[in-house]
Each structure stands twice: as C-alpha cells, then as structure tokens.
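Data card: per-record layout.
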Amino acid sequence: MTIAAGNEHWPSRCRRKVLVQVVSLFKEQNIRVYLSRSWSLSWPLTLIMVFEFFIGLTDVYIAGKVSKEIQATYGFVIQLYFIFIVIANALTVGTVSIVSRLYTSGDRNELTRAIFSSLLVALGTGMVLAVAGILFSPQIIRILNIPEELK
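The structure for this 151-residue chain is written out next.
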C-alpha cells in the first residue's frame, strides 16, 4: 500500500532515499573501520557457533545410525540445549564487554570485582537452571509434547 501526495508515491521515494543514505554510509571509511572492529571482536563467538552446529549435525547423524527413536529424542533435547546456549552466550557477551572496558580503563579493583561478579553470576545462573531443569523436567516434557515411546 502506498500513500499518495498528489502524483508522488512517497514510500518508494523514501525507500530510495534511505537506500542511498545506507550505501553512502558504507562507502565512508568510518563505517568500514567500525565493521572491521566489530568483526574482529565477534569472530571467535561466530566460530564457536559454527563448531557447535557441526557437532550437533554429527550427533544427529550418529543418533540416526543407532535408531530413529534416539534421533527423534535428540531432536527434542537439542531444543532445550539451545536455550542454555543462548543464555550462556548472552552472559559471555555481557561479561566480555564489561571486563574489556574495565581492563582498558586501568581500574584494577573494579576489574577484579567485575570478574568475581561475572563468575558468581555464571555459577548462580547455572545452578538455578540446573535445579529448574531437574524440578520441572516432567512439565517441560509435557509442554514439548514428547511422544510416550521417546520418554
């Protein structure tokens, strides 16, 4: 749907204008520098996720060689595992951001406190998720609607 102002269809003109602005931003040196810096910080986590994908793919392949039931069970379990990975990656990104900022500022006391706090948060989060998984596993299995032969 377009909104006309006289004979002009401004949404298409607006889109063109935005596209031209985005392209001109990417032509500037500053954006390239920022993208390069961003990639230099994010490539290790990207590589880890690629390896996790291949490990998961290998697991599915091997589970399929054993039996289709095991492969199906793995498919259900990997959904839960992915939730934990997302939480762990979020904690990792936040921790790296805070610790690197404090490291470059030179404030060693705050850096030590941030590292200690990060370890406590990771340990606490892991314990809470583990206890929740143990206590609520029947409800989780019911919510996922896992077939009886796979339980």
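Known properties of this structure: The first helix runs from residue 10 to 27. Strands lie at 4-5, 8-9.

See the next section for split statistics.
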